[in-house]
Amino acid sequence: IPLDGSPNGSLGAALDPNEHGRGMDMCSINPNLVGKKYRYAYACGAQRPCNFPNTLTKIDLVEKKARNRYDEGTIPSEPFFVPRPGATEEDDGVVISMISGKNGEGYALLLDGATFKEIARAKFPYGLPYGLHGRW
């Protein structure tokens, strides 16, 4: 919706679709920045050739770059960013996603918000449904 009153707006992409796929879903940001300007978003994307979310992505909206985390045979849930208490940088915290594995396993995956590298995982004694999302 154009904010200048014109009948037509322009479309643009935050990322190169040939590099990062043509869609992302279940995005989240640092909850301290809801309603404010932010730089980073975390989402589920698709590692081609499939068309369902199987990748976690950290998107830098200023640099128009992204970091993708793809583990073959897994489907991530909606990623949530949890800021570190006292953090001064927007991406200083942890990204949490529940993962469904191809063999029926499920686990919580914790990634460093800045580097997007794995910090820890906690295995569940059961699998998780595809498309699990929401805050707990």
UniProtKB/TrEMBL annotation:
- InterPro entries on file: Carotenoid_Oase
Q: Which cofactor does it need?
A: Fe(2+)
* UniProt entry keywords in alphabetical sequence: Dioxygenase, Iron, Metal-binding, Oxidoreductase
- Cofactor binding, per record: Binds 1 Fe(2+) ion per subunit.
One biological process term from GO is: carotene catabolic process
* GO MF annotations, alphabetized: carotenoid dioxygenase activity; metal ion binding
Q: Provide GO CC annotations from the record.
A: chloroplast
Q: What is this protein called?
A: Uncharacterized protein max4-like
